[in-house]
Amino acid sequence: MARIAAFALLCLLLQAAVAEPPAGTEDKVRPGDYDARLSLPARLIRVPVADPGEYFVPPELSEIPDTEYGEMVRLGRLIFTDTQNFAKRYVGNGLNCSSCHLNEGRKAHAAPLWAAYGMYPAYRKKTKSVQTYPERLQDCFRYSLDGLAPTLDTPEIKALTAYSRWLATGAPFGVELPGRGYPPVARHRDPSSTHGGEVFRDRCALCHGPDGLGRRRRDGAYQFPPVWGSDSFNRAAGMNRIGTCAGFVKANMPLGKGGTLEDMDAWDLCAFIWIQDRPWDPRAGTWKSLFSKPPGGG
Ligand code: HEC
Ligand code: HEC
């Protein structure tokens, strides 16, 4: 009984926390975005869109074929949305791939997989090398999940590649699709972490906790992921770059109210998040991590 009451209370809280989409856009919800996620009530993940023709629409879950390939796609989806359980041995923090790649990797402007898949192999400044798609996946394990890179022959990498390839079914290859990555956010002064702290308390603490360490469900899994601390992404992750973080936050946070923050508020928030503690850059030695300025501040 207490459990049901607690659940009902949580539902009410969530309902209060997530705003309705702007008037007139309620019906324009991308069909692919209805699929229930593992950890959140379905209404939290619907994405109101101004023009349904604007972005590529990945296939529906029901369209996964009943073949060996389809099995691999299903496994990839599970790994992507519940990395904590399905790729446990490679994860070092409390996040799932879908903590940042929202709506199971479908949401435009949250680095959707369908926009990424057809753009590899590609040269990356970060590694100063040409990376294949599976190699790109390895980096998100090492840095965003503060874990270990699965080798290229593991089922984890194969399944995630199959899932991405399936989401991109029908998308043009080698074309920079609208909605890839995050949109740039204008900046007209230096970001202020002090102001960022105030905005964080107002707009983010409700879900991510006043201490930024996230909120866990009863079973111990994160309902709301940590944005800093030992269970968050490490210093070498893309999200640790203030500009990249600002792009993600402006387009996607507070969850369900993406696009409502002022540009400079997104920068300030990310400057505030950046000054907090998080796991070190695994590429740097202890000495460097202790005594030099962490990367990503620019
Ligand atoms: C802490 C947040 C975070 C988590 C967790 C995360 N990623 Fe990423 N991922 C990013 C960021 C940031 C980028 C770079 C986006 C950009 O710069 O446009 C990225 C980029 C990517 C790209 C390339 C996108 C493109 O358009 O080229 C792929 C593919 C990817 N991630 C897959 C994964 C997979 C698979 C996982 C789980 C194993 C994962 N990510 C976990 C933040 C995250
Ligand atoms: C309504 C609850 C809610 C609010 C408010 C909210 N977030 Fe989130 N945030 C989430 C959830 C849930 C996720 C993970 C998405 C998923 O699992 O589908 C997330 C993911 C993130 C991530 C990437 C994952 C990680 O832990 O690093 C960052 C960064 C982030 N939020 C920052 C913010 C900031 C900054 C604000 C304030 C502007 C904010 N959030 C407000 C619910 C919320």
Name the features:
298 residues, mainly alpha, Cytochrome Bc1 Complex, Chain D, domain 2, two-stranded antiparallel ribbon, 12 helices, 4 strands, 37% helix, 4% strand, globular, binds heme C
Topology diagram in text:
Blueprint: H1 2-17, H2 68-81, H3 83-86, H4 102-105, H5 113-116, E1 122-124, E2 129-131, H6 133-144, H7 155-167, H8 193-203, H9 205-208, E3 215-216, E4 222-224, H10 242-252, H11 263-274, H12 286-291
Antiparallel strand pairs: 1-2, 3-4
Helix pairs in contact: 2-7, 6-7, 8-11, 10-11
Residues 80, 83, 95, 97, 99-101, 111, 113, 115-116, 119, 136-137, 140-141, 144-145, 160, 180-182, 233, 237-239, 244 line the site of one heme C (HEC).
Order of neighbouring strands in the sheet with most strands? 1-2
- CATH classification class of the largest domain: Mainly Alpha
Please write the string of helix (H) and strand (E) elements.
HHHHHEEHHHHEEHHH
| Count of helical regions | 12
Count the E strands: 4
Briefly note the structural class of the backbone: mainly alpha
Count structural domains.
2
Terminal residue distance = 51 Å
Secondary-structure arrangement, i.e. CATH architecture of the largest domain: Orthogonal Bundle
